[in-house]
Amino acid sequence: MKVSIPKGMRDFSPEVMAKRNYIFDTIRKSFQLYGFEQIETPTMENRETLTGKYGDEGDSLIFNVLQRGDKLSKALTGDELKAAKKSDFENVTFFNKNVSNLADMALRYDLTVPFARYVVQHQNEIAFPFKRYQIQPVWRADRPQKGRYREFYQCDADIIGSDSLLNEVELVKLFDEVLTNLGMKDFTIKLNNRKILSGIAEVIGRPEMIIPITVAIDKLEKIGLEKVNEELAQRGLSEMELEKIQPLFKIEGSNDEKLNQLGSFLADSEIGLKGIEETKFILDTVNSLGLRKATLDVDVTLARGLDYYTGAIFEVVSNEVKMGSICGGGRYADLTGIFGLPNMSGVGISFGADRIYDVMEELNLFPESASASTQVLFTNFGDQEAAYCLTILYQLRAAGVRTELYPDAAKMKKQMKYANDKQIPFVVMVGQDEMNSGQLTLKNMESGEQSKIIISELVSYFNL
User: Fold this and answer.
1) How far is CA 194 from CA 183, 254, 416, 424, in A?
2) pTM of the shown model
3) 419-427 own/partner pairs: CB under 8 Å, 24+ apart
4) Count of other CB atoms within 10 angstroms of residue 65
């Protein structure tokens, strides 16, 4: 048997987990500081809960979970069952045609739709507006590549039950807070509004094409303007309509200048002008409060290809590492309405922990304190010495010093190799001489220096 894991999935070593936990802890601390409360939702949702919420491209990336046992057997008959037994389900045509019959559950694609389901299901237990945060993995049947995985963590913060644009302001500040605390010095928060995009579709005379136009525009950075125009043409825009939309791609200048140009372009669109008004309020309020490290930039081509966004939309990119977006989010007016609770507006953002990790690793931003490695190793010379060490070890742990005792009375070379392999900075050696004198031998593993230290000074030594 060849030992492996599925493509797009990863194992995480203790060293990597220590760094990942540093990211999660930093994000969690800021979420709590801003008044968000934590929830969790299941790994799997009913398939109908997820499908139809992300657009055709998003739905195609959902990992469907086949029915089990007799239910699956009943769903497959004759030649179909034989084909299923012989083939990879992803490549069986009948599966794609009959997925709703064959799969009843799915792995969650994001945290927002399950959150909307949670709000509806628990509405009588929630105080609105509800500020929740969630740090959990999601799954997408995407093609694995740098910065894009099939399993990855999202760290979401949402405010639901309020229309106030002050919520958007808070979330922009939260982006700035978290990423600055993680050590990033140069990153941009891109801002747009789906009402502006709706206005653009209205101005060119194709309001019904807002979703296809949005999906195509969202690919601008990846595939370039020529390919975007080709896709828009394939989706049904005429040459005249394509000509009308081109000024959108030429808007530039300061944020205020961009909004002024948009105002002229969307002068005949009420919804477009409303989007500009909302964007200006967010910009002006954030500017009055100031940002620590982030740059706020109006990007009229930012689309965020999820169907449920209806207002402000955000995306964050590092300007120091080429890595696509590391955070995103936006306003959704009625996502809970799909599940039977209408008129419950919300806005949320998501930190992509895996991409943030990659950026921080490339920029060497993890502090030494991010490591959860043992600080002190006590060597083991035998049962009597080990028992003596245990009493000291628990004193150190009570003082918050990460400490361990080598479990076996092995050769000293083996114990020192263990300390080196785990990058433990200090080793305490306790033999009969040390037990008799009360002076322990402390070895600095980096310099190789050895010194004597009395037990009462050991705690203060590591808590300097």
Assistant:
1) 31, 20, 60, 52
2) 0.85
3) 419/377, 419/445, 420/445, 422/373, 422/374, 422/377, 423/371, 423/373, 424/373, 424/374, 424/375, 424/376, 424/377, 425/375, 425/376, 426/375, 426/376, 426/377, 426/462, 427/376, 427/377, 427/378, 427/379
4) 16
Taking only the tens place, the pLDDT of each residue in 201-211 is 898 888 888 87
Q: How many C-alpha atoms does 294 have within 13 Å on its Cβ side?
A: 29
Question: Cα–Cα distance between 212 and 174 in angstroms, integer?
Answer: 31
Per residue, what are the HEC states of the chain? CCCCCCCCCCCCCHHHHHHHHHHHHHHHHHHHHCCCEECCCCCEEEHHHHCCCCHHHHHCCCCEEECCHHHHHHHCCHHHHHHHHHCCHHHCHHHHHCHHHHEEEEECCCCHHHHHHHHHHCHHHCCCCEEEEEEEEEECCCCCECCECCEEEEEEEEEECCCCCHHHHHHHHHHHHHHHHCCCCCEEEEEEEHHHHHHHHHHCCCHHHHHHHHHHHCCHHHHHHHHHHHHHHHCCCCHHHHHHHHHHHHCCCCHHHHHHHHHHHCCCCHHHHHHHHHHHHHHHHHHHHCCCCCEEEECCCCCCCCCCCCCEEEEEEECCCCCCEEEEEEEECCHHHHHCCCCCCEEEEEEEHHHHHHHHHHHCCCCHHHCCCCCEEECCCCHHHHHHHHHHHHHHHHCCCCEEECCCCCCHHHHHHHHHHCCCCEEEECCHHHHHHCEEEEEECCCCCEEEEEHHHHHHHHCC
Sign for the pseudo-dihedral over CA of 275, 281, 282, 284 = positive
Give the position of tokens 């945290």: 111
Per-residue model confidence as pLDDT tens digits over 372-426: 689 999 999 999 999 999 999 999 999 999 999 999 999 999 999 999 999 999 9
